[in-house]
Structures are given as C-alpha cells and as structure tokens.
Hints:
Layout: E1 17-20, E2 25-28, E3 37-46, E4 52-54, E5 57-61, H1 65-75, E6 80-83, E7 88-94, E8 98-102, H2 104-113, H3 119-135, E9 142-145, E10 159-164, H4 166-181, E11 187-188, H5 192-202, H6 210-217, E12 223-226, E13 229-236, E14 250-268, E15 274-286, E16 292-297, E17 311-323, E18 326-333, E19 340-343
Parallel strand pairs: 10-13, 16-18
Antiparallel strand pairs: 1-2, 1-8, 2-3, 3-5, 3-7, 4-5, 6-7, 9-10, 11-12, 12-13, 14-15, 14-17, 15-16, 17-18, 17-19
Amino acid sequence: xxxxxxxxxxxxxxxxxxxxxxxxxxxxxxxxxxxxxxxxxxxxxxxxxxxxxxxxxxxxxxxxxxxxxxxxxxxxxxxxxxxxxxxxxxxxxxxxxxxxxxxxxxxxxxxxxxxxxxxxxxxxxxxxxxxxxxxxxxxxxxxxxxxxxxxxxxxxxxxxxxxxxxxxxxxxxxxxxxxxxxxxxxxxxxxxxxxxxxxxxxxxxxxxxxxxxxxxxxxxxxxxxxxxxxxxxxxxxxxxxxxxxxxxxxxxxxxxxxxxxxxxxxxxxxxxxxxxxxxxxxxxxxxxxxxxxxxxxxxxxxxxxxxxxxxxxxxxxxxxxxxxxxxxxxxxxxxxxxxxxxxxxxxxx
Length: 349
C-alpha cells in the first residue's frame, strides 16, 4: 500500500483515514477541525485478538462509538479531549502524532494503476468504473474508503466508495436509482435476504423491526450489493462548497428528546455530514425547547433518510447552536445506537 506524504495545507475531511505513531487507524469525521488536531474516530487498532493482518501486525476493527471511546479511554487517552466549540468530549489526533494519511482519491488512483489486483481490489475498481460511466462523471471524482483504503481488507469485505461534490453526488444517486429499478451489471438494492447484516450493524439498537427499517433502507440508492459484496457510497461536499470554519458556531448539549416534525428542506440529506431543515416540532418525550430548526448527523446511515414534505419521528440529542448573537436548536443523531429518524407512519408514537 502506498504511503502518502502529509500535506497539512490540504485540510483533512470526511473519508480520509489517519494512522498514528502507535499504529492506530482513525477515520476522519466531518469537514471542520480545530487548528491543532484532526477530529477522527478510532476504526482499527493493533490487537492479538484481531482478524485482520497487515505487515505482520494483527488489527481489530471497532464500529460502535461507545466501544471506540472505551478503548481509547483505557489504552490511549491522549486521543480524547474536551472540545470547547462542539461542547463535548471528542476523539482527535494532534497534528504532531500523525504518521500517515490515506486519501480516498489517491487510493483509487493507486489501485487503478496496478497490473495485478486481488479479488476485492478488482471488484472495487470495476465498481468505481461502472459508477463513473453510468453517472457520466470523472474517475477523479471518486475515492475508495474503508478497509481496502488501509490494506486491511479480505475477500468478503464491503466496498466503500466516496464521491465528491454536490453535482457529482446527485448524478451518482440518480444513476444508482436507475440500477436498482432495472438491475444492471450486478448492482441491486437491499432485500430481506441480503439486508440483515446491515440492519444488525446500523439499526438493531433502535428496537425497530427489520421489516420496518427495510422500508427505509430498501429505497436508498447509495447502498446495496454488487458482485456479492455490500456497498456503501458516501457523498462528501467539496471544500469550496463548505463555508463553515472552526469556531464560527458553538454547540451546547441540552439533553435527549423524541419528537415528531416535518422535513422542509432535504438539500443536504444526501451527504455526510447530512442535514435536514425542519418545522412543526411536537415533543413526545424528553427535553422540550423552542426554535428547533434542523436535524444533523455525522453518521452515514442517516443520509437519504428523509425527504422534503415527510413527517418523521426523530430521537437523539438536542444541541443549542450559537453564532453572531443568534441561536437555534438542532437534533444531532448518531451518538447512541437508539437514535432514530424515520417516517412517522412507520413507527408508533
């Protein structure tokens, strides 16, 4: 696997992976970071109990947030810190501790240049080229993320791609929607027989039945199956499409709540982070506050989750957002496995 030169003038963003001097591998979250560190969450760590091996070292993979925090708190507390802007404890890597950066676009360029690839590498390159052709975009608009990005994949690993920019992402979404409706080249949406591993990983903590969640995930375009693999395509805005910088807003947690509301704008619902503007908020339980304007998540599972005009049930953390003497409240989803965003007609209030 190619090791890429660190260029800190190119800001790190969602989908990049970072390796520390201890050999920990983190995935970068979001598009806004403090000046002295990168907000990123542990994904792989050296462990004798791991099932993945690279360069003679065995690694374990961790998915759930609580487990990520526990591992760092017990063994690597230097990567936990209290962020005064986001108003919470976060995982973050000080710039001086970065050993390697893995950028998705460069990984695809590298794999595309190889004359000999393993089975998954070939499937990923093939899938990326199908996406390129069907969406009529450039291959340079696509990157490879996940285990293959850091050379910790196996033959049955998932395919994780990233596409960059609003126009490109919308074109990919439309192309995949066509492929799901009229299956072509082995690309399909989820059905009950293929969906259970996804449900167990993403939604089992909500207590919502698998058949109900499939009604949501089954119509999404950016995930499904290809060539015997699960695939997930993450849409990320280009740097020029993001105006927020660290410190422009401050965030303060208010408590957990559950409410019914209406989606009035889903323009950023495709992306990670995703954002939905809302109104007509009616509380069901938990903290009750005024001036709630939006639902935001840094977890990819909440992308494509709702559309403009939908009435939804939302459950998660309330945060007050403050900027330039103005303030409003948002739901932030993804901290807990029980967090919910689902059509109200699919869930009993």
